[in-house]
């Protein structure tokens, strides 16, 4: 198998060798710690933030966090839980942890969204998709749309309201994965607009873009976290390249809009190979502490 690596002299990141990557990072002076935090619980995130400040405040000051990667867990039970994990969870993590992020112009937030593009790609009803136009969007509007999605799903009106084509409301209920993550992509633009001194971007789904291997899904998020972005923020990326989140517009046929629905052509993905992705910038003088979040399992009442 071709080596799907993103590595430099300072940041050896080999997606084919988990243990080797951990060892290399530790040998470079970085520390890897595992923390448990519930992204759907504001108190859990706040307690975690305090732990970070206590553990690293001496060596890194009052803002010890440099990189935050929000990769929501998959939830296929119902729309309410999917929205909690896929949208509100990353939103909670970002809003509570942003105050302790370094404001040096190179700190990162990476939101792992969904491939294909934005609302114009995934939502078949044009008037609903138009409500996601970035120029008219606000966090309040986005929250309202998320709650509408949850309400429409509970009422069995996803197709009628335009969220999903008929096949999507059958197993495995793809909309539970797609819609919250698509909305997370829209939130990424808003968050970047409000925080110009942090590089905030969204990654599309790359899982099988590289080498038909699940590790390929980590290439773009890793690049957004460690690579040289040349100051680019507020963009949606696929295969290591920024693409237009709003460019894909689905135009339904004039006949039966639901039964005749055909998936639009995907965004044209660059032929860029993993080895051609730009190497991450050298790490700062102080070694990183790599923190891996282990989400708590949601209970039945969550």
TrEMBL record:
<protein>
    <submittedName>
        <fullName>Uncharacterized protein</fullName>
    </submittedName>
</protein>
<dbReference type="GO" id="GO:0016491">
    <property type="term" value="F:oxidoreductase activity"/>
</dbReference>
<keyword id="KW-0560">Oxidoreductase</keyword>
<dbReference type="InterPro" id="IPR036291">
    <property type="entry name" value="NAD(P)-bd_dom_sf"/>
</dbReference>
<feature type="region of interest" description="Disordered">
    <location>
        <begin position="270"/>
        <end position="302"/>
    </location>
</feature>
<comment type="similarity">
    <text>Belongs to the short-chain dehydrogenases/reductases (SDR) family.</text>
</comment>
<keyword id="KW-0521">NADP</keyword>
């Amino acid at each position: 198998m071709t080596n799907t690596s993103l590595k430099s002299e300072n940041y050896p990141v080999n997606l084919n060798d988990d243990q080797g990557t951990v060892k290399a990072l530790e040998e470079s002076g970085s520390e890897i710690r595992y923390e448990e935090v519930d992204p759907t619980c504001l108190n859990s995130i706040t307690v975690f933030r305090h732990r970070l400040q206590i553990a690293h405040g001496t060596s890194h000051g009052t803002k010890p966090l440099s990189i935050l990667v929000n990769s929501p867990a998959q939830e296929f039970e119902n729309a309410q839980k999917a929205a909690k994990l896929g949208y509100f969870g990353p939103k909670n993590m970002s809003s509570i942890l942003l105050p302790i992020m370094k404001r040096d112009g190179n700190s990162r937030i990476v939101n792992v969204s969904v491939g294909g593009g934005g609302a114009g790609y995934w939502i078949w009803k044009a008037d609903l998709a138009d409500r996601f136009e970035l120029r008219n969007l606000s966090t309040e509007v986005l929250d309202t749309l998320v709650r509408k999605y949850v309400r429409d799903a509970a009422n069995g009106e996803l197709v009628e309201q335009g969220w999903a084509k008929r096949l999507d409301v059958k197993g495995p209920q793809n909309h539970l994965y797609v819609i919250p993550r698509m909305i997370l992509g829209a939130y990424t633009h808003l968050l970047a607009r409000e925080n110009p001194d942090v590089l905030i971007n969204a990654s599309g789904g790359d899982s099988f873009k590289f080498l038909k291997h699940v590790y390929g899904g980590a290439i773009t998020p890793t690049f957004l976290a460690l690579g040289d972005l040349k100051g680019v923020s507020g963009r949606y990326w696929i295969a290591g390249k920024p693409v237009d989140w709003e460019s894909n517009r689905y135009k339904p046929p004039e006949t039966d809009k639901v039964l005749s629905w055909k998936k639009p052509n995907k965004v044209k993905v660059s032929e860029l190979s993993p080895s051609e992705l730009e190497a991450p910038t050298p790490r700062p003088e102080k070694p990183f502490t790599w923190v891996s979040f282990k989400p708590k399992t949601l209970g039945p009442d969550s």
